[in-house]
UniProtKB/TrEMBL annotation:
It comes from Nocardioides mesophilus. It comes from the Bacteria. This is Uncharacterized protein. The lineage of its organism: Bacteria, Bacillati, Actinomycetota, Actinomycetes, Propionibacteriales.
Length: 243
C-alpha cells in the first residue's frame, strides 16, 4: 500500500523545517512540489500575480511566518480552522489547508492539471491544536476498534486491499519527511497517513456490501478512524520536533 501526504501537510512540515533551519529552501520547495509539475501562490500581500512557491515561502517568512499549521476539516469537524469564514469555507471545500502562524495567513491548494495553485487568505491559527501524545493514543484506540468492526463485516471479502493494508500497518510509510523530525512524530505521520489511505480505499465503492445496511455499517466503522487519523496528522505536522 502506498501512502502520500496531502499537499497542505507537506507545506506545513517543510515550511516549518526551513524556518527552523532543518532544511534548505530548495529542499523545502522540492519536497512540497513532489511529483507535481509546479506550485504557485496567488493572493499574497502586495502581489497581484501568481508567485512561484520558492519565492512564496520567503515572502511568508518575511511576513513573520514561524511555522505551518495543518487544517484537515471534515463535515461537522472544523479541525485546524479558526476563521475567517471565507477561508474556512474554501478549506472545507478543498478538504485541507495551511495556516502560517505569525504571518496570520492561510493557503488552500487547488489542483490545476498537473500543477497546484495555492490561494492565500487572511487566517487565524486554531486555539486548540491536537497534542501529539493524545492524538497517537486516540488513533491507536480507533484503529483497534475499527479493525474489529471491519473483521465482523468480513472486510477481506468485500475489499481485500483494505485487509492487506491493515496487515501492512507495522511498516512505516515511504514518505519524504524533514530529517530533523522526532521519531515519534515520524511514526505518527506514517500511521496517520496509512490509516487515511485505508479509509479512502474502504469508502471507494460498495464492494461486496450488497445492502444499504451493510454500507452504512462500514461507514460507521470507518468514521472514528478517519477522525483520529486526521487529528494525528495535524498534531504531528504542528509539533514535528517534539520527541
Amino acid at each position: 500500500m502506498s501512502s502520500t501526504l496531502p499537499p497542505s501537510a507537506r507545506l506545513a512540515l517543510w515550511f516549518s523545517a526551513w524556518v527552523e533551519g532543518g532544511a534548505s529552501l530548495d529542499e523545502a520547495r522540492d519536497a512540497v512540489v513532489g511529483d507535481d509539475a509546479s506550485h504557485h501562490v496567488v493572493g499574497l500581500p502586495d502581489h497581484d500575480d501568481a508567485v512561484p512557491l520558492i519565492l512564496a515561502l520567503g515572502l511568508l517568512r518575511a511576513e513573520g511566518g514561524r511555522r505551518g499549521v495543518l487544517a484537515l476539516p471534515a463535515p461537522g469537524d472544523p479541525l485546524g480552522l479558526a476563521g475567517p469564514a471565507g477561508f474556512n469555507a474554501e478549506v472545507v471545500d478543498a478538504g485541507e489547508g495551511v495556516v502560517v502562524e505569525g504571518a496570520e495567513l492561510g493557503l488552500v491548494p487547488h489542483r490545476v492539471g498537473a500543477a497546484v495553485q495555492w490561494t492565500c487568505h487572511d487566517a487565524r491559527v486554531a486555539a486548540h491544536v491536537p497534542d501529539p501524545g493524545e492524538a497517537d493514543s486516540g488513533l491507536r484506540r480507533a484503529l483497534l476498534g475499527t479493525t474489529e468492526q471491519l473483521a465482523d463485516l468480513d472486510v477481506a471479502r468485500w475489499r481485500p486491499e483494505v485487509a492487506d493494508a491493515l496487515l501492512d500497518l507495522r511498516r512505516e510509510a515511504d514518505l519524504v519527511l524533514p530529517r530533523a523530525m522526532a521519531p515519534r512524530a515520524v511514526r505518527l505521520v506514517s500511521l496517520s497517513s496509512r490509516c487515511r489511505t485505508i479509509v479512502e480505499l474502504a469508502l471507494e465503492d460498495d464492494g461486496g456490501s450488497v445492502t444499504a445496511l451493510e454500507a452504512d455499517a462500514r461507514r460507521a466503522a470507518l468514521l472514528p478512524l478517519d477522525h483520529a487519523a486526521r487529528r494525528g496528522l495535524v498534531a504531528a505536522c504542528a509539533y514535528p520536533w517534539q520527541g
